[in-house]
Amino acid sequence: MKYISTRGQSPALSFEDVVLTGLAPDGGLYVPESLPKFSADEIASWAGLSYQDLALKIITPFVGGDIPDGDLKKIIDDSYATFHHGAIAPLVQTAQNEWILELFQGPTLAFKDFALQFLGNLLDYILKKRDQKVVVMGATSGDTGSAAIEGCCHCDNIDIFILHPHKRVSDVQRRQMTTVLTNNVHNIALEGNFDDCQNMVKASFGDQGFLPEDRQLVAVNSINWARIMAQIVYYFYAGLALGAPHRPIAFSVPTGNFGDIFAGYLASKMGLPVEQLIVATNANDILHRCISENDHSKKDLIHSLSPSMDIMVSSNFERLLFDLYDRDGAAIGQLIEDFKSGSMPLNDAALDKMRGLFSSYRLDDDAMIEVIRTVFDETGYLLDPHTAIGVEAARKVRKRQDIPMVCLATASPAKFPEAAQKAGQSEDPALPASMADLFEREERYTVQGNDLGSIQKFVADNVRG
Ligand SMILES: *Cc1c(COP(=O)(O)O)cnc(C)c1O
């Protein structure tokens, strides 16, 4: 399997090379040259497989022989052995034909563990095989950082540097990152906001001259193809559990960077009968405006109670656009150029195609709090703020009541006690036993000014020889 850029101007890469990179040199994102397709019979034959065995079926064609089957199986088994629930991605029913897919049973309590536990083990394997060392540099508004650190902290060939906006992540989120004390992990609290963090990382990928000669940067945000690929699995897993491929299924996905829901789109292209994909956004609603009224224009970022979706420009949306524009890299380059001046209207053909599968909905903080309260009163089930937005979106815009609607639960409510309190919970939702002493653990991080030179010096000084 080869991987090509959405801008069409970069050489194709192998699977292993695409895992070890970030953006393509032409500024695009890598996507597989073609998608594996599974017949209904083949999908039906996977009913009852464990999560890990299903993952092996789905991931193997993407790896395209770069990694022997036995080794890939071990990478997958190790990646999900750290989860707290035997089903890995359990389903919980909350209403007639409405299900919550709990994607927060991994070590850091957010769905990002699905991709980042896997990516950490995959990088470890590839780097050992090549006898190569790399530097991971990433920005986080909260969940990516801890999941990436948890995924990479055991990899001897990786030094990882995670930037978070100083004082703007929750205490649980910060402590999940800063209490990992292995000597290849470095947390930088940047005196700035999330965009500042991301700009530091982008600038560093663009010019890697500050690194020691034998090192390169690897991306752990969802521009990394391996993350998207790992997430395709749970769409099939939920679908199979609820009757696919013999009956269709719908998903509602709390969306920020469009990574998670893009994996759902790929699952449908690969043969899963997906009736509807709902893009659920908070007040940062560029994707909702784009889908509902073809208004893909920038607005100021709003800080919400669902911070992992406080994103203005969704990088993975470009991967969908590439398909909507019949994989015409030049057209994508032009669209992105248009967007730099503020807005990016799509053409009618692209809009029609998108609306055939995608619907969207937007919810602000006050309405989201009401959803947490209502669902708790109805069922005793406590939603986290991101998931609550997805549940309400599903209830508002689902097309069919007679097929299962799966609402992806992207984080545990324990990560966001503020929202739970506002929704009337008298006690903070409990952290799992493995994290019960989180607030007693020693923390280690450095506070740095918003200055590229000093950040890069800190990275260069702390890369191990
Ligand atoms: C990252 C994240 C999201 C958004 O996921 P995308 O793949 O960026 O769309 C939603 N909810 C939570 C809890 C997250 O951590």
Describe this structure in words.
The protein is α/β, with parallel strands linked by helices. The chain has a domain at 80-108 and 225-422: Rossmann fold (3-Layer(aba) Sandwich). The chain has 18 helices and 13 strands. The strands form 3 sheets. It has a 6-stranded mixed β-sheet with strand order 3-4-12-9-10-11, with helices on both faces. The chain has a 5-stranded parallel β-sheet with strand order 8-5-6-7-13, with helices on both faces. It starts with a strand and ends with a helix. Residues 110, 112, 143, 222, 254-260, 308-309, 386, 410-411 line the site of pyridoxal-5'-phosphate (PLP).
In short:
The chain is an alpha/beta fold. It has 18 helices and 13 strands. The chain has a domain at 80-108 and 225-422: Rossmann fold (3-Layer(aba) Sandwich), CATH 3.40.50.1100.
CATH topological fold name of the domain at 80-108 and 225-422: Rossmann fold
- The CATH class assignment of the domain at 80-108 and 225-422 is Alpha Beta
Mean model confidence by pLDDT: 96
Number of strands: 13
The helix-and-strand class reads: alpha/beta
CATH architecture of the domain at 80-108 and 225-422: 3-Layer(aba) Sandwich
In percent, how helical is the residue content? 40-55%
Oligomer type: single chain
Task: Please state roughly what percent of the residues sit in beta strands, choosing from under 5%, 5-15%, 15-25%, 25-35%, 35-45% or over 45%.
Answer: 5-15%
As laid out across the biggest beta sheet, the strand order is: 3-4-12-9-10-11
Instruction: Report the uncertain regions.
Output: none
Describe the biggest sheet? 6 strands, mixed
Shape: globular
Report how far apart the termini are. 34 Å
**Helix run count:** 18
Listed once per kind, the bound small molecules are: pyridoxal-5'-phosphate
